[in-house]
Amino acid sequence: MSQNIIVTSTESSDPIKQYEIALANYSFLWIVYFRGHWCPFCMSYLKTLQSLLPSIGGAGGKVLIVTAEPATHLPATRKATGYVGEAVVDPEHKLATMLKEKGLLDVQITKKAGYEFGVAQPAILVQKGRGAGEGEILFDWVIVPRTMNLGGAKDRPDLTQIWDNVQAKLQGKPVVHAQYSLTSFTGMIWSKIFG
């Protein structure tokens, strides 16, 4: 399946405009914040997200991955994960700020060397786009970095289970999963070793 790869940054595009265009042109928008190419949990998460792209696109959805990491690292991210969808580079957290101001998602920003304005911690927002129910939140999640989740690295909800629930909501059915399995350290290592 051939998909257009669109890589943008604050120098070439406005992250807020990118969000607004996607929301206006698709039935729903799926946003995944990731920390950077150096985070094995993020890379594992994006691999899983890549496997869901055809199904999400087939249902009329659009996926955007968002990072505060410099755009020069996106090729490494794509190589490590196989992710071919659209990416938003937002080092100044313009999109995160707007989402928080609108009460949609409160992405946690923490200090980290190499990130002038801080690193955006993992977060997910799935929101209805054009058509009936526009703007309705289908799923939202943010990690609050703590020692127990390795500073925001682990304990992420299972993307496949999230997609199951989003599909159910889109079809007006009850959710499939009352609780989500969380990414553990051993689970991430297992997936890196055995694919």
From TrEMBL:
Q: Name one GO molecular function term.
A: oxidoreductase activity
- A Pfam match is AhpC-TSA
InterPro entries cross-referenced by the UniProt entry: AhpC/TSA, Thioredoxin-like_sf
UniProt domain Alkyl hydroperoxide reductase subunit C/ Thiol specific antioxidant: residue ranges: 22-100
SUPFAM superfamilies under this entry?
Thioredoxin-like (SSF52833)
The source's superkingdom equals Eukaryota
UniProt cross-references to Gene3D superfamilies, sorted A to Z: Glutaredoxin (3.40.30.10)
UniProt-recorded name of the protein:
Alkyl hydroperoxide reductase subunit C/ Thiol specific antioxidant domain-containing protein
Q: Which organism is it from?
A: Cladonia borealis
